[in-house]
Amino acid sequence: MDEVTIKLDVMLAMRKMRLKKLAELTGLSEQNLSLIKTGKARGIRFSTLYLICKHLNCQPGDLLECHYDYDTDTK
Prior knowledge:
Blueprint: E1 3-6, H1 8-14, H2 19-26, H3 30-38, H4 46-56, H5 60-63, E2 64-67, H6 70-73
Antiparallel strand pairs: 1-2
């Protein structure tokens, strides 16, 4: 299945940071960050992505991962 997933939970674990702390640092709501973390958000603004990357000291590519289903692309 083609999709983009976010690895916010992985980055938080690597930085030993809780979602609540990231919410405090970014000024974003914990609820919105939770939606992003669980992949339930329908989209993410570049400004939000910037804030997350800034406070986790990472690049967007560290947070996003593309999954391709090559079998369906060739049919």
